[in-house]
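dumping this here before i forget
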Amino acid sequence: MNIGFIGIGRMGSPMARFMLQGGLKLTVCDPNPEMVKKAVAHGATAADSIAHCAQSSGVVFSSLPDDKILAASALGDKGIIANLKQGGIYIDTSTVSPAVSAEIALAAGKRGVHYLRMPVSGNSNSAEAGELTALVSGPPEAWKLVEPIVKKFSSAQVYVGDAEQARYMKLVINLVVANTASVLAEALALGRKGGLEWSTMLDGLSASTVGSPWVKAKARLLKTRDFTPTFTPSQLSKDLDLMLDAGDALGIPLQITSTTRQMMKATNADGYSGEDFIAVVKMLERLSGLPTDKV
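structure:
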């Protein structure tokens, strides 16, 4: 079976590499020639178009930035679905809206293509380590066929239903992450102004009942003020917009999430657009009259 992979950026590239290391045959397509060159060096074959990639594959994965690019890549005469053979399997790993995903599901059904929604939980570091969690929904028989492939680049796989459930599951997880970041920023500013020593405060949080794996990981980086981006404020803002849109569609008042969206917007505009979204900590420090260059 030849596998296609469209969109081999920061997340897609390591996923593709693990497939190749697992002995799978892979054809890749990406607008960035450097990323294609990197994949070819690991044993992939380059396709000159999305259509070519889909035509030469029985299974196609995609990892794409947003709704617009996903729709442009999946739909239309030159898209994935129109060029994947009937009975083929299309798996999208992007974080996108349930509404756009449902449009793609409709097109796939008309074409006779099995469509799996498979957003992944984790950042680029998780992807590089093969420690992503795959959140899967769609036809269960298609999932059983590709599960061994997915296990090559993920450490956990969670099947949640036969429709758009995986899209909502990813938004649920990222909602908790985003709001935890803004709460952590407020807590750390309070602690600093109250006289807590920075490193000791982070140790206390990590050892407490709120010391989740995510809090512990961020605490380790915050100790040395390491804001190297794994996910920027702008990228998280895109996901927050998806959450708020989904909340509006379902009639859910996401008040805390709305506030976090404004905090991420402020962080992005405050000079931290190129840093990790946990730079919201520095934005709160500035608003609190605390120095952001030292602790």
